[in-house]
Amino acid sequence: MDKLHQLTLSSQELETYHQQGYVRLGKVASQQEIEALCQRIDNIMLGQIRYDNMLMQLCPSAGKSDLSKKTREFKEVSLKYRKIQ
Fold this sequence. Notes:
Elements: H1 11-20, H2 31-45, E1 56-58, E2 81-84
Antiparallel strand pairs: 1-2
């Protein structure tokens, strides 16, 4: 993901957005870009990449209710995070 894609909406797409509040964009990223995003979020969940003040919430199904509260800290190495902001 070395470069951002310049998105241009047609007048019809823009009208649809204004009427419905959304517009279907179709394919906006390549398979390689999607795989890179998946690897990045896995690295965040596994603690290999950390950001200060990132909100993280483990899924209660991880079996650790004390860690399932949303807080601004890395909780543990797990792929069972349900929310990351």
